[in-house]
Every structure is written in C-alpha cells, then in structure tokens.
Amino acid sequence: MESPFKPNILHGKVSLITGGGSGIGFEISTQFGKHGASVAIMGRRRGVLDSAVSALQSLGIPAVGFEGDVRKQEDAKRVVESTVKHFGQLDILVNAAAGNFLVSAEDLSPNGFRTVMDIDSVGTFTMCHEALNYLKKGGKCRSSATGGTIMNISATLHYTASWYQIHVSAAKAAVDALTRNLALEWGTDYDIRVNGIAPGPISDTPGMSKLAPEEINSKARDYTPLYRLGEKWDIAMAALYLASDAGKYVNGTTLIVDGGLWLSRPHHLPKESVKQLSRAVEKRSRSGPVGVPNRSKL
Ligand code: HXC
C-alpha cells in the first residue's frame, strides 16, 4: 500500500531499529527508509540482518546491520556507537526487539519469565540508556535544538489479562512505564520525545505465528471491531507519524493500533434482538413495582 505521507518527512534523520531485520521492525525500517531516513538495524542473526540490509539497499535506502543482543549492555553500546560512526548521528531509536512464547503461568520457569523481561523491558531501557548521549543533541538548556525521539513497541496484553502471556504482559507493562517516565524526564531535560506503539494481532509476523495458530487467527477476526487482522504497514504508518514532525507535540503516549480489539467483548445478543428484548423488559417493569416481577408473567 502506498504511504499517505510525503516521501521526505524523515529526510536527514538517522534511525536505529532493534529487531529491525524481521517482522514489524523490518517494515518500520523499510518505511523509515522510504521516507528519507538512514537505517541501522540490530539483531542477533547475521543471516537475517544481511538479507534485510540487501532488501533495504535495493530500494535505495542507506542501510547497515549490526549484530547484537539487547540483553547485553556492551552490545547495545557498541551498536549505538557503530551507528553514529557509520551515519554521523542518531535521531530515532525504535525498540522493536522482543521475545515470546506461549506458556501457562504454572509451566513457566522463573528463568523463562526473566528471559522475556530481559529482552523486552531491560533491553529497551539499556538501548535508551546507551542512546541518550546521542539523542540529546544540544539539550533544551543549552541550545534551541530539539532532541531525538524514541519509540517502544509494546502490546495490549496487560491492559486486562491474557492467557499464557504472564511474562510478556509483565514485560510490556514495564515497557509502557519506561515510555512514560522517560517522556517525563528526557522530554523535560532534552526535548526528547518518547512514545510507544501497541500493535494488535498483525498478520505475517513472528509474533502471530508463535502465539496464534490459524484456528486462533480466525477467532480474532470474529472479535475485532474492524473485522480484520492488522498489517505491518499499519504499525509502520503509526511509527512514521510519531517519528515525524506530525507528532511533535506527542510525548509519553502509547498509540494502540489494534482495530479496537482490546475493547472487544463477547457479543451475546444480536443487535436485532436488543430492541425487542429491551422493550419487553421496560413493559414488564412498568406493569409492576421495580424489582418485583409481574405475577401474570410468572
Ligand atoms: C516454556 C520456554 C519456552 C517455551 C523458552 N522457554 N521457550 N518455556 N515454553 N516455549 C524458557 C526456557 O526453558 C528457559 O528457561 C528460558 O525460557 C530461556 O530459554 P532459551 O531458549 O535459553 O532462551 P533464548 O535462546 O535466549 O531465546 C529467547 C526466547 C526465544 C524468547 C525463548 O523465543 C527468542 O529468541 N525469541 C525472539 C524472537 C521472538 O520471540 N519474536 C516474537 C516476538 S512476539 P529454563 O528455566 O528452562 O532455563 C511479541 C509480540 C507480543 O513480542 C505481543 C503479542 C500480541
């Protein structure tokens, strides 16, 4: 699908995207590049990085891949520094690296819980921590230059509760807390905007294939108000909005891009039956004191 944004909205910006070699991260990398940004991607698998970089370069996007694990502070530091060395600056950090698997709380080991917290929550903080020096630019106190921006990919699982996702729910709740707290502190000190995106079920992603086999996919379609799964493109467009000047007054929010899924509830009563039932209940309650059933109906 064609982007509704002008192709130069990120012109001159340098972005670093963790988990940028596949899934949602790769689509964000592609769209950032198509809108003028240089793109550095970070990931653990050399082969995935290499093919992602080739694909980006074939579109004319200045792109580079750096191997690294967000759980290791030395990797985070090295990749941030390599990005700045390669492109001369850093303006946009996207934390898209994540880990997940379906498991009941009873069967999840503390190490399994910790592993996902380490990737999603601690990894996000570590990347932000290492990138700060480059994102702060002049800093509000020292010059009029605005700082860079950070975007954390989250989820909606923890807004209520999610089956077999206790580890990811906890990890993404922490990510949302990071988004708000960094927005407050770094927005005030350095004009750095920090936002998040909470995708719903997005087709053709590692998350979807791990968490939702086909039988669950079709159920999700039934419950989603917009009656379809999202596309990676939908998330990338939200990222472009937040990263560009269109989002210049947006700070500390996590934008939900899920077609309204998290609001959905089981649909017990068809709309056609509501009016009839509702009128009948009204009629009953008028013909007797409220709360006392009409004897003739019993
Ligand atoms: C139960 C599991 C498990 C499983 C791993 N563990 N897989 N427990 N069920 N299926 C446990 C292990 O037993 C171990 O605990 C601990 O987790 C660490 O496992 P390792 O395999 O050693 O970890 P590692 O090699 O570091 O791999 C991390 C990983 C892996 C998260 C397990 O899946 C990974 O690298 N994932 C990255 C890619 C990914 O998942 N992408 C999808 C993101 S989807 P013990 O106690 O045995 O030592 C996403 C969407 C969220 O984020 C929102 C959806 C709506």
TrEMBL record:
**InterPro entries named in the record:** DECR2-like (IPR045017), NAD(P)-bd_dom_sf (IPR036291), SDR_fam (IPR002347)
Q: Which reaction does it catalyse?
A: a (2E,4Z)-dienoyl-CoA + NADPH + H(+) = a 4,5-saturated-(3E)-enoyl-CoA + NADP(+); a (2E,4E)-dienoyl-CoA + NADPH + H(+) = a 4,5-saturated-(3E)-enoyl-CoA + NADP(+)
Broad EC category: oxidoreductase
The biased composition feature labelled Basic and acidic residues covers 275-285
Name its GO BP terms in alphabetical order.
fatty acid catabolic process
Query: What's its EC?
Result: 1.3.1.124
Recite the UniProt keywords alphabetically.
NADP, Oxidoreductase
The yes or no answer to whether the keyword NADP is present is yes
Residue numbers spanned by region Disordered? 275-298
Where is it found, in Gene Ontology cellular component terms? peroxisome
Q: Give one GO molecular function term.
A: 2,4-dienoyl-CoA reductase (NADPH) activity
Mind telling me what this protein is named? 2,4-dienoyl-CoA reductase [(3E)-enoyl-CoA-producing]
Species whose genome carries this gene: Trapa natans
